[in-house]
Each structure stands twice: as C-alpha cells, then as structure tokens.
Design brief:
The protein is α/β, with parallel strands linked by helices. Helices cover about 35% and strands about 25% of the residues. It has helices at about 30, 40-50, 55-60, 80-95, 115-120, 120-125, 160, 195-200, 200-205, 220-230, 255-270, 295-305, 325-330, 335-345, 355-365, 380-385, 395-405; strands at about 1-10, 10-15, 20-25, 65-70, 100-105, 130, 140-145, 150-155, 165-170, 175, 180, 235-240, 245-255, 270, 280-285, 310-315, 370-375, 390, 410-415, 420. The two termini are about 30 Å apart.
C-alpha cells in the first residue's frame, strides 16, 4: 500500500493506494526544486540583471508617482520576499518617490488587512500606501478604448496617472490564459468588471487556443498583452515557486521578455506527457488556491488531460471559504452540465456574467467525466454542482472504484496546478 500526501488547505490529507493499481504518481521537477542559494538572493539577482530594461533604480530616477501592482490573497506570490527589494530599488533611484501598492483583485473580493499583513508583513502595511482594486466601482476606472478582440478596456486610473508602473506576479500554468504572470497583473488584475468579463467571454474560453500552456494565438493572452503595453508597464518581477511556495526562479525587466523567460523555465520544469488513468486524483495545491470551489478548475483541467474519454476525476479542495462567488454558485448549480453549457453559450460577450468561465469549463469536463469532490462543502451543495461528495481521499477513491471497477488504474497528481500535462 502506498501512502501519498495531498495538499489540502494549510495542511495535507493522506491517500492510500495499492501499488499494483497505481499507474503513475505525477510530480514534476518544479515541485521539488529548492531555492539556490536562497529566495532573497534569487530576487535580488533578478533585479540586478533585468531583461530588456535598465535597473529599477535607474527607471525610478525623476519619477514622483510610482504604482506597484501586486497579487491578491488568492495567489501565493511571496510579497514578503519580493516587495522589500523592489521598494529599496525605487527609493535608491528616487528617495522622494510616492509609492502606491495596488492589489490586483480582478473580480475577487477585497484583500483584508489581516491578509495583507500575512502577505506583505506588518512594516509594509503600516508604512506604505496600499489600495485594493474594486472592479465594481466605476469611479476607479478610465476608458482606454478597445482591445484586439473588440472588448472594452477600462483600467484603474491610478496606473494612468503614475510616472512609473511596475508589476509583480507568479508564473505557473494557467487553464485558459496559458500561463499566469506578466500581463495578467493588468488584465484581469486591475481592470473594470466589464473588461474582465469580455476577456473571459464564452467565445474566448471556447477558443481551441485558450488552454493550459498555450500562448500562441490565444485570444485571452493577446488582449492581456495589449492591455499591459497600452498602460505602459515599465518593469515586472515574476517568480516561480516550488511545492512549499518558495521562490525557485525570478525574472525581472521588460513585460514580455521577463515573462517569456519565466514561462520557458516553468514549462521546462513542469511539463510532462499525460499519463492516462481510469481514476485521476488531484488537488489545487492547498492554500491559497483551494480556498473555494471557483478556483478549483485549474487543477481539474490538468486531471482532465489524464482522464481519457471517461475517467473519474477526484478533486481534493478544502473550499473553506465556500463556493467563491455568487454568480459561480448560481451557475454551477443551475442544471446538468449540458444545460449549463447551452445557457452560457447563448450569452454575448458584452453581457458575460461574472465568473461564468469556471462553470463553462466545469460543464465541458463534467459532460465526459464523473467527479468526486473532497471538501468542506455541504454534501447537498456538492451534488447540486453535479459532483459526488466524499469526506476523505480514501472514501473518494472507493467511490471512484465503485464506478470504474476494483482494478481501475489510478493516476495521482498531488498538485494539479503546477503540472503542465501536455506532450513535450
């Protein structure tokens, strides 16, 4: 019997699988890499050797109003490590710079002060100006025309009024934008509700190029790049993390060059050929991405790549904050997967409902695969989401075996978010 530890919330759950039925344990180099020689050194080295731009301290000379866009509480960006050296660089170039840290919430709720203190540390919260983007407050945004897809582009006015715009983020595979990081700090990070919705429309999500690991011809990615260039992002710092959420790579400099370098590294360390199983078990990598069900399709899409035509998917996602959004909760429980997809497919881009992209992706997956969910959600709620509730990974595996048979081949992906399951 093999015991496999699965990330769940801020802890882990144990899964027990007979060795003879374990087809594969999918863990890539990404998860096991260690900071070399340290997280702080990697970040400082990236800042000292930027790609395609001068150092941040040089860019900051003469710049009075500086905006630094960072991620919110749903992302594992280690801002305690990344923000202090960036702030030091800015003030080396201009000690009098007025810095605003703008939290890129997208359509998420505001990041609480407690979460900010955990993410940034007390000193930054106490001494720096921090603003949360609110996609639902029209007064925060200015209209900068349209994007290549025809979507409207309304962005937080703070980035149009500053003298220097910097973004930090995390590079990892993303289930419809190809990869996170880089341009995503702007769109969806600090855009108005309508811009985010149009970028994530049914048609955009349904594109054959809107997939994990795909950037070429991806309409969602292309709009994001244009948005970030239009507001004049001058410098980015992006990092990659291991399974312990430690920095194992950092890239700084030009929006596209630094992001491309990070993508290349993450692709090399996280990509593997899909291994097909009758049952595929995965997680969202624990906290913070498994706080709610809305975030869970990231790993489920990885499991889909390994589940063949009709494999059962087991997802372990704590959902300690519940469903993750009123629109998502309503749509994912409105009917069968076929009914959900039929409803969403009739919604024009300009009328996209917030959060509809995750029910759309779930509908695609659930039409082919039965799914067992280990979570803190009420079992009836799980059933209304067209999923089967389970109290533990072992119970979920037993349920899946009841569907696929005792001899079902099992594939386990402990962190489905960090794995790029596509043929090299």
């Amino acid at each position: 019997m093999r015991t496999i530890s699965l990330p769940y919330g801020r802890s882990t759950l144990d899964l027990h699988v007979d060795e003879e039925h374990l087809e594969a344990l999918v863990e890539t180099e990404m998860g096991s890499l260690e900071p070399d020689p340290s997280e702080e050194w990697l970040v400082r080295q990236a800042l000292a050797t930027p790609l395609g731009t001068p150092r941040l301290s040089d860019l900051a000379r003469g710049k009075r109003r500086v905006v630094l866009v960072t991620s919110d509480h749903t992302r594992a960006v280690p801002s305690r490590v990344t923000l202090p050296p960036q702030l030091a660089e800015i003030r080396t170039g201009n000690p009098d710079a007025q810095v605003t840290i703008l939290i890129a919430t997208g359509l998420h709720r505001a990041t609480t002060e407690e979460e900010q203190r955990r993410m940034f540390g007390d000193r930054i919260v106490d001494e720096e100006r921090i603003v949360c983007n609110d996609a639902f407050d029209p007064s925060q945004f200015v209209d900068l025309g349209t994007l290549p897809s025809g979507a409207s582009f309304k962005v937080n006015r703070l980035v149009t009024e500053c003298d220097l715009l910097i973004c930090e983020g995390l590079v990892e595979p993303h289930f419809f934008a190809g990869f996170s990081g880089g341009r995503k700090s702007i769109l969806p990070g600090i855009c108005a509700e309508e811009t985010v919705k149009e970028n994530h429309s049914y048609r955009a999500i349904a594109s054959p190029h809107a997939l994990t690991g795909v950037l070429a011809h991806n309409p969602i990615h292309e709009d994001m790049v244009v948005a970030a260039r239009r507001v004049g992002v001058a410098f980015i710092l992006n990092v990659a993390l291991n399974a312990h959420k430690q920095v194992i790579g950092a890239w700084a400099g030009d929006l596209e060059q630094a992001h491309a370098a990070g993508v290349a590294h993450v692709r090399r360390c996280s990509q593997c050929a899909p291994v097909t199983g009758d049952i595929v078990i995965t997680t969202n990598g624990g906290y913070p991405l498994d706080q709610n069900l809305y975030q869970s399709p990231k790993a489920v899409a990885t499991a889909e790549a390994c589940a063949g035509e009709d494999g059962v998917i087991v997802m372990c996602c704590s959902c300690v904050e519940g469903m993750g959004g009123g629109h998502f909760a309503e749509l994912i429980q409105m009917g069968t997967p076929e009914e959900i997809d039929a409803y969403l497919s009739g919604i024009p881009a300009k009328r996209t409902i917030p959060e509809q992209w995750c029910p759309q992706i779930y509908a695609r997956i659930l039409r082919k695969h039965q799914m067992v969910l280990v979570s803190e959600l009420d079992p009836e709620t799980v059933r209304r989401c067209n999923m089967i509730p389970a109290a533990s990974p072992d119970e979920a595996l037993a349920i899946a075996r009841g569907i696929r048979g005792r001899d079902a081949r099992v594939v386990v992906i402990p962190d489905g978010v960090s794995v790029l399951a596509v043929a090299p």
